[in-house]
Amino acid sequence: MVRLNEIRDNEVAIAPPQAEDAALVFIGRISTPWTSRLETPRQGRPDGPVCTIEIFEPWVAALKGVERFERLEVLYWLHQSRRDLVLQSPASNGEVHGTFSIRSPVRPNPIGTSIVALEKIEGNRLFVRGLDCLDGTPLIDLKPDRTLFKPIAPPQPGDFETGQVHMCKKIDG
Ligand code: SAM
């Protein structure tokens, strides 16, 4: 069984438009025990192996305060993914799902996110559990877990707005 870049029964690939707008800056590199996509966890787990996130200069100063959070949200670039599937068959059984209804690494912009447990920080290296990416995966961003984060900036009007029925589309079914 192959499950790397092949097209499976009923999957649909499109010709993606040329990427020409957002230019990402990789701010670091993730080291994990996994060198094959066939062995990497489908989703990280909080008791998974300790992995290392190395932050590159000039971004190391941006780690100030990160140690206060026991959990972080990590965003990374799933650099070995194809990017052209709109329908995918994760079980390889002919049943297909829309790309935006699943968390497959195959996406138009292959961004992975995980909530990780922060074990410690040493200089420009963070030691975390909860990742599910290949060794060498480029790092896009780090943020405190939103459930632990209280905005530091003063509140603004939108913070107090509640939903208005006319702004929401009713979804049938
Ligand atoms: N937790 C993230 C999420 O939900 O956004 C990623 C989930 S994705 C299902 C995890 C899978 O992506 C792994 O099991 C592996 O097959 C694949 N993967 C991991 N690192 C990758 C990389 N650098 N490039 C391409 N695929 C990768």
Describe the structure.
It contains no helices and nine strands. The two termini are 37 Å apart. Helix content is 0%, strand content 29%. 17% of the residues are buried. It has a domain of 117 residues: Elongation Factor Tu (Ef-tu), domain 3 (Beta Barrel). It is mostly beta strands. The strands form two sheets. It has a six-stranded antiparallel β-barrel with strand order 2-3-8-7-4-9. Strand 7 and strand 8 form a beta hairpin. The site of S-adenosylmethionine has 20 residues, from strand 7. GO terms for molecular function: methyltransferase activity. Keywords: Methyltransferase, S-adenosyl-L-methionine, Transferase. InterPro entries: TrmO-like_N, YaeB-like, YaeB-like_sf, YaeB_N_sf.
- How do the helices and strands follow one another from N- to C-terminus? EEEEEEEEE
Work out the helix count.
0
Number of strand elements: 9
Strand order of the main beta sheet, please?
2-3-8-7-4-9
How far the N terminus sits from the C terminus, by CA atoms, comes to: 37 Å
Q: CATH superfamily membership of the domain at 29-145, which one?
A: YaeB-like
CATH topology of the domain at 29-145: Elongation Factor Tu (Ef-tu), domain 3
In terms of DSSP E residues, the strand content is 25-35%
Top CATH class of the domain at 29-145: Mainly Beta
Report the helical percentage: under 10%
CATH architecture title of the domain at 29-145: Beta Barrel
The bound ligands are: S-adenosylmethionine
Low-confidence stretches: none
Q: What is the molecular shape?
A: globular
Whole-angstrom Rg:
19 Å
Mean pLDDT: 93
Protein name: tRNA (N6-threonylcarbamoyladenosine(37)-N6)-methyltransferase TrmO
Pfam families: TrmO_N
GO biological process, one term: methylation
Organism: Shinella zoogloeoides
